[in-house]
Amino acid sequence: MAIGTDFATLEKYTYLNGFGSYHQSEAIKGALPQKCITPQKCPYGLYTEKLSGTAFTAPRAENLQSWLYRILPSAAHSSFVEIDSAYSVTGNVSKDVSTLKAVPNQLRWDPFEINNNATFIEGLRVLAGAGDAQTKSGLGILIYSAGKDMGDEAFYSADGDFLIVPQHGPLDIQTEFGCLLVRPNEICVIPRGIK
């Protein structure tokens, strides 16, 4: 007696069964690398990609991952095309979602120009954000370019803590609690409401 359901369309694939197990399969014999899962050169000129289902902070024994060896990298595709909203597959999960345009395409921008005539405040530019400042949830990602002293001006973030990561040149910060010299490869966090 066969175990399972008899379908009108017969199964044509072989599956690797089991949860939390390690399996391997290959379309062409010898396509999987031996001795190393990330060789510099894969058999048949394939590209190595890791698809992880676990945070990188998880204990090693709990890591869930798949190693894929592809003919082309998954990033090698044409641009995505927006579909008609009548075929939308997402619900209205936020009051402002209708004004947003999610772009799944790979994005990059040219380096920003360094403006030596701008103060820190004048040189701030918003790159991205998520959440809502009114509910104190989420974050804002900004870039700055500054080359001029702020003089008698003061700045504070009422939205949340302000993490500053200089990339080029030192930043001399004067706060209500004292002075900080923050150089590239260092970070600085100014708490919310501190001038």
From TrEMBL:
Keywords per UniProt: Dioxygenase, Iron, Metal-binding, Oxidoreductase
Residue stretches making up the Homogentisate 1,2-dioxygenase N-terminal domain: 14-195
What are its GO cellular component terms?
cytoplasm
Quick one: which pathway? Amino-acid degradation; L-phenylalanine degradation; acetoacetate and fumarate from L-phenylalanine: step 4/6
What GO terms describe the biological role, i.e. biological process, of this protein? L-phenylalanine catabolic process; tyrosine metabolic process
Q: Which domain of life is it from?
A: Eukaryota
Q: Which GO terms describe its molecular function?
A: homogentisate 1,2-dioxygenase activity; metal ion binding
Record's signal peptide = none
* Alphabetized InterPro entries for the sequence: HgmA_N (IPR046452), Homogentis_dOase (IPR005708), RmlC_Cupin_sf (IPR011051)
Give EC number(s), comma-separated. 1.13.11.5
Q: What is this protein called?
A: homogentisate 1,2-dioxygenase
Q: Which organism is it from?
A: Ascosphaera apis ARSEF 7405
